């Protein structure tokens, strides 16, 4: 048994008690690695980002890989993706096994030395300049995908990530999370919202109704908002399909 498995066993982690039923399928699909793109779309409070963070933390523990986390604007990373990953580590009760750095943003798994890097695409050249010697930059997470202006902006970054040949035991893959934009013409909706998906893409949809941990106040607010709004008005912010 590897030291990483011993860590998880020592903590007696039961993922079924942490991951919501709606997202356990995502974890299983991620482990199978049959896809290279895992698209999680859903409204506010759906817990999609929380579960991506949990899955990526487990991946860094179990595999010798690094993860690149991206948002459109670098300044938003420290109060979103970075904190979400810290939450996941605390939820798994594994704080002592990670080091958190602020300048630059890094999260390091102490047992191996791999971990998380963070970049904003307001300075896209910084993504191209990442060079990591010990462990490959294998997984990635585009948070708030709809913030990115064009598909080409995202694809350029992915091409920079997947340049080097990997060991056959691992493969490049990543998460894309977003709240579907109101406009059907938005590039994100056109690519992942309608029609047939590429064979390399897994798409998952969730709403706050799938989150059993959501507060009573949140549910009441969402339901009251729906009652006040005309049925023809887009309920994008809560449960966009």
Structure, briefly:
Helix content is 37%, strand content 20%. With 241 residues, it is of the alpha/beta class. A hairpin with a 5-residue loop joins strand 4 (105-109) and strand 5.
The overall average pLDDT, rounded, is 86
- The CATH class designation is Alpha Beta
| Major sheet summary line | 8 strands, mixed
Number of strands: 8
Percent of residues in helices: 25-40%
**Biggest sheet, strands in spatial order?**
3-4-5-2-6-7-1-8
Point out poorly predicted stretches: none
| Whole-angstrom Rg | 18 Å
Domain unit count: 1
Classify the secondary structure makeup into a structural class.
alpha/beta
CATH topology: Rossmann fold
Please trace the helix and strand order, writing H or E for each element: HHHEHEHEEEHEHEHEHH
Give the termini separation: 43 Å
Shape: globular
In terms of DSSP E residues, the strand content is 15-25%
CATH architecture: 3-Layer(aba) Sandwich
CATH superfamily: P-loop containing nucleotide triphosphate hydrolases
List the total number of helices.
10
